[in-house]
Design brief:
single chain; about 150 residues; alpha+beta; HSP40/DNAj peptide-binding domain; two-stranded antiparallel sheet; about 15% helix; rod-shaped
Amino acid sequence: MNESINIPKGVDNGVNLRVAKKGHAGVGAPAGDLIIHVKVKPHGYFKREGSDIQTELFITLSQAVLGAEVPIKTLYGDVRMKVSPGTQHDERKKISNYGIQKLPPNHHQKGNHYVSFKIVIPKVLNASQQKAMLEYAKVEDKVDNLGS
């Protein structure tokens, strides 16, 4: 006999769900409760941490330096996210209330979605890109790694 079980939104790994009177029934004894141990399959893009979601967004060097507006995939569809000028590699930005619905008693709340920026540095430049980078190198501020 196949029956459906309602899995509440927000359930995570290790949660035990009790289904009353759907367990094993002994001879002359009523059916017991069925206990379901939940295992949530990991997703390739969305990483879950409690009720929060973590994702990575790959951006170009010019988007990181100049800023941009880019699409980001969320649990609730695509949204536009502002990349601030001067964004650093591994910098994180929060999209409030775009995480996973929390369990009771906070079931009217959602976690957040955190985006980690990953700046893609080109391995090969064409002639125009090489020329532009050489011109930029002439005027860029140098980094002092000696701490003096």
